[in-house]
Amino acid sequence: MKALGRHILAEVYGCDPTLLNDIKHVEKVMVDAALNAGAEVREVAFHRFSPQGVSGVVIISESHLAIHTWPELGYAAVDVFTCGDDVDPWIACQHICDQFKAESVSATETKRGILHPWGPLQQGASHKTDEHLKAPATVGAAR
């Protein structure tokens, strides 16, 4: 089944703390990751926190890349979301892990925008899944 987008969430551990705290390095890594994956970079926004840590986003024509770093823990939370068939989010994710010298990574991919078996959402409606993971009840739509 074709998805509108691919969304990777990566837990990146054992990174070089100095690199994670260097805002210019973090921004370059993220922009280069987007470009290496075949994306078109539109805008970037990064912020360094005191006493440490960097958060930032690279907006691409195909969606976004985001990062939040905890240098004191050698950890980064990475988010790579791409739409279409021309950009490979795994290439971006691998580049990021390599550039921060990660010792270990846990990553998952979620397909976004897949038509659910119970049909498309009606405009203005949403689906809510109960705690038993049964087919969702429609919220906000006439029954």
From TrEMBL:
Manner of cofactor binding, per the entry note: Binds 1 pyruvoyl group covalently per subunit.
Catalytic activity from the UniProt record: S-adenosyl-L-methionine + H(+) = S-adenosyl 3-(methylsulfanyl)propylamine + CO2
Enzyme Commission numbers on file: 4.1.1.50
Co-factor requirement: pyruvate
Keywords, in A-Z order: Autocatalytic cleavage, Decarboxylase, Lyase, Polyamine biosynthesis, Pyruvate, S-adenosyl-L-methionine, Schiff base, Spermidine biosynthesis, Zymogen
Residues modified to Pyruvic acid (Ser): 63
Residue ranges, annotated region (Disordered): 116-143
Record PTM text: Is synthesized initially as an inactive proenzyme. Formation of the active enzyme involves a self-maturation process in which the active site pyruvoyl group is generated from an internal serine residue via an autocatalytic post-translational modification. Two non-identical subunits are generated from the proenzyme in this reaction, and the pyruvate is formed at the N-terminus of the alpha chain, which is derived from the carboxyl end of the proenzyme.
Active site, per annotation: 63, 68, 83
Residues flagged as site, Cleavage (non-hydrolytic): 62-63
Known pathway: Amine and polyamine biosynthesis; S-adenosylmethioninamine biosynthesis; S-adenosylmethioninamine from S-adenosyl-L-methionine: step 1/1
Gene3D superfamilies reported for this sequence: 3.30.160.750, S-adenosylmethionine decarboxylase domain
Gene Ontology biological process terms, A to Z: spermidine biosynthetic process
GO molecular function: adenosylmethionine decarboxylase activity
Gene Ontology CC entries for this record: cytosol
Biological role stated in the UniProt entry: Catalyzes the decarboxylation of S-adenosylmethionine to S-adenosylmethioninamine (dcAdoMet), the propylamine donor required for the synthesis of the polyamines spermine and spermidine from the diamine putrescine.
Family: Belongs to the prokaryotic AdoMetDC family. Type 1 subfamily.
Summary of subunit composition and partner proteins: Heterotetramer of two alpha and two beta chains arranged as a dimer of alpha/beta heterodimers.
UniProt cross-references to HAMAP family, sorted A to Z: AdoMetDC_1 (MF_00464)
Name of this chain's protein: S-adenosylmethionine decarboxylase proenzyme
Species per Swiss-Prot/TrEMBL record: Caldinitratiruptor microaerophilus
